[in-house]
Amino acid sequence: MPHRILFICTGNSVRSIMAEAIANDLGRDIWQAFSAGAAPYGVVNPLTIATLKAHGHKTDGLYSKPLSQFLDDDFDVVITVCDNARQSCPVWPAPKTAGRPGKTHVEHWDIEDPSEFSGSESEKRAFFEPIYADIRGRIEKLLER
Questions:
Q1: CATH number (domain holding residue 66)
Q2: Choosing from 17, 82, 131, 135, which is the catalytic residue?
Q3: Which position among 62, 83, 103, 111 has the lowest Cβ density within 10 Å, counted as fewest Cβ atoms?
């Protein structure tokens, strides 16, 4: 049974979506990743999709989802990727499903929001790259544990 991980940010448009796609690619059969927003925007930022595709990630099926969709689900790990989501994140109970003993591990990654950057289209694209690299590096370390 793969480990389940949930990435949460405010709008579920950039950082948590990137984390979901990267973790599903790198974790394959070991991890099953999801993402959600405390106040989802309802759409994925087009530069998120462009950045993921540029790095060879699949983007089919990625969409902005509300956190409420996952409140009754079991997760081994829950990660907030912005301070606002950290403050609004509910306390996660221990998994209820047999085979998932123990407590849900909750952690916070403070990742800058590239959607707040203003500049030309090429400057915005360039600003997304270090955010992608940061998220990927953190996921690689997480998967090594």
A1: 3.40.50.2300
A2: 82
A3: 103
d(CA 142, CA 11) in angstroms, rounded, equals 23
Domain count, the chain: 1
What Å distances lie between residue 11 and 65, 72, 103, 125, CA to CA? 9, 20, 26, 19
pLDDT at position 104, please? 81
Domain of 97, in residue numbers: 3-144
> Could you read off the pLDDT of 26-36 as tens digits, one per residue?
998 899 999 99
Helices (H), the chain: 15-27, 46-54, 83-88, 121-144
Short-list 29, 39, 42, 7, CA closest to 136: 7
Q: Is 9 a catalytic residue?
A: yes
Asked about 89 being catalytic, the answer comes back as yes
- For residue 118, the one-letter residue type is S
- Distance CA(42)–CA(37), nearest Å, equals 9
Indicate if 84 belongs to the active site: no
List 31's β-bridge partners, or say none. Answer: 3
Residue 67: its H or E element: none
CA distances from 15 to 47, 93, 105 (A): 11, 24, 19
